[in-house]
Structure formats: C-alpha cells, structure tokens
Amino acid sequence: MGTAMDMAGRTKHNVAAAVMPEHGHRFTRSWWWRTLIVVLTVTIAAASAMLSASLYLSRIDPVRAVALWPGNSLARANMASNGLLAKMQRSSAPAARAAASAALTAQPGNVAAARVMALAASLNGDEPRALRWLRYGEQQSRRDLSTQLALIEYAVNRGEIAEALRHYDRALRTEPESYQQLFPILFAASAEAAVREPLIALLRQRPFWREFFLSQLTGGPTPFAITAPIVAAVSLDPAVPREREILSRTITKGVGENRLAAARRFVPGPASIGIRNGGFEASNNWPPFDWALADDAELGSVIEQGVRDGRGSALFLDARNGRSGEVAHQAEVLPAGRYMLTLAAGDVTGAMDERPLVTIRCAGSNTALLTWRLPTLPTAGAQLRAPFTVPQGCTGQLLSITASSPANEGTDAPRPWIDDVAVKMARSTS
C-alpha cells in the first residue's frame, strides 16, 4: 500500500517538473512578443506623426517639412519653387530643375514639381516646354491653383479667351478660396464683348460658383453698364431667393447710377408707366420701383387698414419728437410730357410746414417737377390732384412723400394717410 502511494507521489512530482519549464518558456516568449509589438507600434506612430507633420508643412514651411521627412517630394518641389520664385533668374533654373526632377522621380504625379519644371523652362525662354509641363501637371490634378493661373496667362497671351475661361472655371470649381482673386479680374475683363459673350455662355451652364459671382458682381463697384448685360442674359428666376436678391441688387445699382429706365427692365412682370401699387394693396417687392418705406419709430410710414368705410389699405405717416423727413418714395420712368398726379388723403392738420409734402424730381439733376404741400383735410379724406411736366432729358423721376412732426404730439394727434396714388397723362387743352 505504501509503495503504491509513494509511486503515485513520485509520478505527480515528475509530471509537474516536466510541465513547469514549458510554462516558463511560454511566458518568456509571450513577454518578448508583446514588447516587440509595443516597440513597433510606437515607432510606426512616431513615424506617422512625423510624416503627417511634414506633409502639413509642405506648403507653408517646406524647409522644416524636409527636415522632418527627407523623402517628402512635395516639400522638396515647393523648396525648389520658392527658391526659383525668390530670384526669378535664369541662373537659378538648373538647381531648381534638378530638385524638381528628383521629386518627380520619387513621385511622378507631383504637380508642384511639374510647375517648377515649367517655370525653369520659361526662364530659359522655352515657352513650348513650359506649357507642356503645365499641361502635364494639370493632367495629374486640376486642383492646383497656381497651375491653373499659369495656364490662364498662357491662354490670354495667345488670345484664346475660351481656353482661358475653361481654366477659370476649373480653378473656381476646385478652389473656392480663389473667388476673391479671380472674380475682380473677370469683372474687369467682361467690359470687353469678346470676353463677356463666352463668359455669359459659361454662366448659362450654371456652374456652382455662378451665384457667388453674380452676387459680388452686383453688390460691388462694377459699373451698371458691365453688370446689366450679364445679369439680363443669364435668365434669373425671381422665385429663387438668391437670384431674386441678385436682381434686386442690379436694380439698386442702376438707380444709384441714374440709369432708371435700364434698371426698370429688371423688374419682373409687364412693363408699365406710372405708379405701382398706388392703392397699397400688394407687396412692395421691388423698391424703389415699388414703394420704399422708411421704418423708424420716430419717422416712418406703414401700410394699415384704411379709414374710408374700412375699404382696403392706406399709407399712414408717422413723425414724432420734432423729426421730419422722407417716409416713402418710388422711382418712375415717365417720358417727357404733361401729367396729372392724383391721390386721396385725410387727417391732415396743423400749420403748413407740419403737413405732408409730396415732391417729384428728376433723378440725377434733382430738378423739382412738383412741390406739393397737402391742404388740411378731415379724417375721412378727399381726392386731390396736381399737374406737373416732365421735360426732355429727364428720363427718370423720384416721387417722394415727406412727413413732419405736429405741434401737438399727444395720444390723439392726427395720423395723416395717403391712398390711391396715380399718375396719368394730362389731357391736351388745344
């Protein structure tokens, strides 16, 4: 019995002795393997960080980018480009060309290097080679703005307007940051019909930058004579808010330059002569050819329910705290001739200088055609009329309504109102 138990004990001891060394070896191998993985991971992460930093610095600081990652061919190409651009001398071309060639060997699709090769060729007087390198760079990527600008310059120098506009389009489609640089050039160039017509054809294709272009064109200092033909030709839809805004800006620009007749053509709907929305029943969507109303707590005008048996709306004039000035105006395009201005008004009281004033002046020259101070009128109102004449050469007019604060500004102070404003040709007396 004892012998059997001793044998069993020795057997267990032998098995344990045989197994334990194997576990020790496995633990050692596992530890070294995990350590190796950690070291490799850290090394790869560090290299990746350096590469990322190098790529980030490739354009803004190519020297540091190369120091971080000597194999960064983009940074090397930009170094060569910067060096060449800094001197712009033929003697600098060989070194820049060698650096760009090395970068292209490492990365054949390097657009910056292709651009350096083009510049070096240009400094050597080899324009055909320069153009070939630029086209090669563009084949690799159309997103390089400098390449597109160089191709635009080549096209313009050769008088190839359509080709230049193609590169403008590519630059604007791929680099929205270029808008501020390229739009003013196009604005100025479009004064020439040779540029304006193909530009309009391009805009009719509705590139996504079109609205940005038209917004800056109409909102900036570009003259109405350049702006108007482009806006008229691209068929904007006033139902689209952005396009409606462009039309409105065009109208404002034309009126500001005293081109009222031309600006009036941009107002949607059938053309008409005379007051628009004289009954104040519709929206004033296109000022100043619709009513432009002042909106001030102390000096302004507002369209509200009329007082004549509750019939429709009227324009109510408000002036307080000693304020006086224009509260409403509308631009007109009346041909030379004799006219009659008619309107309804009411609740007009006070001294003459406290009562509403209606004037019509020639746009630009500011020559007065009518200066009409309304008479005192009851709240229920009355119909009034006043004649005026538009002389030759007065191609646009401005009708203005001025309000003045009454001497009595209590809560029961009168609120003058105006309605049914109309202009008609006066009947001949001959």
Q: What would you say this structure looks like, in words?
A:
The chain is of the alpha+beta class. It contains 14 helices and 10 strands. The chain has helices at residues 2-60, 62-68, 73-87, 93-106, 111-123, 127-140, 145-157, 161-174, 179-189, 193-204, 210-219, 224-233, 241-256, 260-264; strands spanning 292-293, 299-305, 313-319, 324-332, 337-346, 357-362, 368-373, 382-390, 397-404, 417-425. The strands form 2 sheets. It has a 5-stranded antiparallel sheet, with no helix packed on it. Strands 2-3-10-5-8 form a 5-stranded antiparallel sheet, with no helix packed on it. Helix 2 runs antiparallel to helix 3 (73-87), helix 5 (111-123) packs antiparallel against helix 6 (127-140) and helix 7 (145-157) packs antiparallel against helix 8 (161-174). The chain starts with a helix and ends in a 5-residue tail after the last strand. Residues 1-21, 42-58 and 63-75 have low confidence and may be disordered.
Indicate the low-confidence ranges by residue numbers: 1-21, 42-58, 63-75
Distance between the termini: 155 Å
* Shape annotation: elongated
| Average predicted confidence as pLDDT | 81
Cα-based radius of gyration, to the nearest Å: 40 Å
What about the largest sheet? 5 strands, antiparallel
β-strand number = 10
Taken in chain order, the helices and strands follow as: HHHHHHHHHHHHHHEEEEEEEEEE
Beta fraction: 15-25%
Give the neighbour order of strands across the main sheet. 1-4-9-6-7
Annotation field: number of helices: 14
Which structural category do the helix and sheet elements fall into?
alpha+beta
